[in-house]
Amino acid sequence: MTKAFLAAALVFVLVQVPATSFAAARFERMSDHCYCFQSTEGGGNVGAVVTDEGVVIIDPPPEPALSAAAEALKKLTSKDVRWAVFTSPSRIGEENARYYSGQGAVLVASAQLYGLYASSNGDSKAAGPEARGGNPAKLQDASWFIFDRQMRLFPANLEVRIVALQPKSRTGGDVFVFVPAEKVLFVGGLYEPARYPDIDVALGGNADGWIEGLSQVVDSVPLLKAAIPAAKPLPKSAPKPAAKPEKKPAAKPEEAEDDEEKALEESFAIVSVSGNASNLREMKDMLQTSRKLRNDIARSARTGGSCENFLASSRSGAYRNFANLDSYACRLFEALRRK
Fold it and tell me: How far is the C-alpha of 184 from the C-alpha of 268, rounded, in Å?
């Protein structure tokens, strides 16, 4: 009886003990070489490009998500992390940068991003994009690769394109990573599906520039439409084809092209700082809506209107299909008034 009681008690304890939040966390496959780890502890999504010549990790998180992501990566591949890429100054932390630098990885950042990070961590020499010699005291031993506009990595002949946004966007130093052959973009906090961004003014962000930054991302993606061969003319000696039953009118050429372009856009996966993957079609929809919002707000600002009045008006209803409108609209008002 005692043994039966102890066994029942043990089963009860095992059932009652909650699993850790990372128990089932793993890198989800996006394409042949691209993966995403969804952190549940506030560390944001982590990207990884895994090849036979090493791993490119994108936005490694702080603790406690750092240990979980590193463990999940070990289960995915035995290859070492050779490059750690950051998409904004706020994504660099002493824990995550030192962890991968200590394993021999090169830390990759744009000059603008690195300058903002370094200056916010006590390095006055690196206060601007042109200051490359500085190294924040917390990461003096780290190996950095600082680039201006764009750099390319080719692990195992797979192109990984790392691009610095030129306009001041969500911050003054946003970066995105594009793997052209696999149609995957890692954009960090620059874009989140169905949500206007949180503009980080303290790190040089600009709500108006964010629209131009998003446009730069969209324009960087080549959409190669499949060529449609023209119908071959029938030989002169060929008999006329038999009459066929009437069919519904075929789609116009421009409609067929639009459908093809939409299908191509939906085939490009976009990994953001949080949530599930989006696609280029959804990003273009947000860009189009944001441009219309800018035009409406610009008209309101020219006539002396306020952000509060705009948000309270019926005009704002057309833009509330995306979250975080109130915060972004007021940042956009400020940016347009300073022009």
Answer: 6
